Amino acid sequence: MKQPTITILLVAIMGGLAGCSTPSTSPNGRVEPARQTTPVPEDTLTQEEPRVREEVLEQAPVTLPSPAADAADLAMPSLAAGAAPEARRKQERLYPEKALVAPGIAPNGVFDRYALPNENRENYAHLTENGVQRAAEHPLSTFSIDVDTGSYSNVRRLLTAGSLPPRDAVRVEELINYFDYDYPRPEDTRVPFRVHSEIAATPWNSNTYLLHIGIKGYEVSAAQLPAANLVFLVDVSGSMDDPNKLGLLRTSLQMLAGKLRARDRVSLVVYAGASGVVLEPTAGDQRLKIERALARLSAGGSTNGAAGIELAYQMAQQAYIAGGINRVLLATDGDFNVGVTDFQALKNLVEEKRKTGISLTTLGFGSGNYNDQLMEQLADAGNGNYAYIDTLNEAQKVLVDQMSATLQTIASDVKIQVEFNPALVAEYRLLGYENRVLRREDFTNDQVDAGEIGAGHSVTALYEIALVGGAGQRIDELRYGTAVAPVAAGDELAFIKLRYKAPGTTHSVPLSQAVRASDIVRQAGATSDDFRFAASVAAFGQLLRGGTYTGGFGYDDVLQLARTARGPDPYVYRGDFIRLVNLARSLSGAGGVATLRE
Prior knowledge:
- The chain is of the alpha/beta class.
- It has two domains: 133-220 and 410-474 and 490-588, Immunoglobulin-like (Sandwich); 222-408, 3-Layer(aba) Sandwich (Rossmann fold), CATH 3.40.50.410.
- The chain contains 16 helices and 19 strands.
- A six-stranded mixed sheet has the order 3-14-16-6-5-19. Strands 9-8-7-10-11-12 form a six-stranded mixed sheet, sandwiched between helices. Strands 4, 13, 15, 17 and 18 form a five-stranded antiparallel sheet that branches.
- The protein starts with a helix and ends in a 10-residue tail after the last helix.
- The relative contact order is 0.15.
């Protein structure tokens, strides 16, 4: 009888976190927390607080929980197929907080807590791959930069689990930009980044050329970061009750909290059916207090993400630091199912909130019901970045090693426009960035939102181009020609233009650089490691999406190219990429093009 008592106490506390109101009873007899959004008082851990809070804190670990401990804490014991109904009822009595949301029996007879057998509710936005453009007809290519990396780590999760990713889970630019590249850095902070270009033969098509455009932002050490006001917005709904969701999330945020300083502030807001404040703005060096707040988190209930977002921005505004970093970090599987659930309405909500000067970073967790589309698009709307956390190593990369890039924006609304010279370039094709394409007139319109670059971030874009008179052309010329005859501009192949805004400003600043035919690297193997490695990642992404333009270039070719271009690899990210290519080759059938899951 002791365990049910503890469970009721936990539910009572969660009701307190939602506003200290009276719990209600659902039709099945379970106690449900009242659905309010009133913040609770800051947890001061004093003797005057109710004993029931002390009992919960005594059960909560203070040290960082290990994944193994999380698995033991969160997993409901399995029952063999055909177990007696009495045994199942006893199990549900002993583990009511882990009762089934959508009961079902998996093929092995074990309870599936959240879905019917074999149901996969992961959500990806449909992308139509960029096609080939005739330079004489469409000389301009305009798009917003993208520093998100969520697609790469999500693809890694799927491949490691033994499954080829759905086509729309693969965003080629996010695979390329997952890796750091040694581009020239800006000479000082007055110009936040420098533009680098390199052009050589395309590895998968000897009749075309690959134009490699790279941007590198100036770096800021963690110690030099301005004061940060961070709000951890954590999904504690029932769908998060999994070691690879709430368990991994909790430890990931504790890792970030361990890097904060006395001048930083951190708040913790949770949401399920209701939302509440678990931790009022607290100095970053109060680590024990922050760790205890995170360690108390447990999952249960439906998911009202919009209410949580509203409350998180309220907390961020309350502790706003002028001239500092003000950011909400939304950690969830994206499975919003009550309240405002319409995709566009949620984007509109975040777009409105970004006007306050508070940005939004999304951190994705879990599988089965993962909403990749929502996570990526909310980060874009919130002037932030999107990462998918599949392992503690990824949490270390995003929240610790690249903390400055994740938190501090050095340039906002960054746009790229490349004009191809039709006298020399017959065709071009942009690799990736399908959902970042802008209209020609958007480039100079400072009211049009675009991407942000964090401190030390590198951004890479690749174009496959065919020269006039070459054998790489894919599109027949128009019978009656173009309306205006192309005008030669010396040996210029293309002209790269960028626009960006310094943080806190409203007017964009232009940059430009020409790419010349004389820049083409003619000798095989004379290209940089970064050029060849980015090309190998681009080829890999295209193969996972069906290989429309890669011809006979397969996984063996990707492996050979990546191995010769690995270069310095202190964190073994490039080595892990080679492992993933090997996995994809095996899953697709020994070197062939992937047979895709739709």
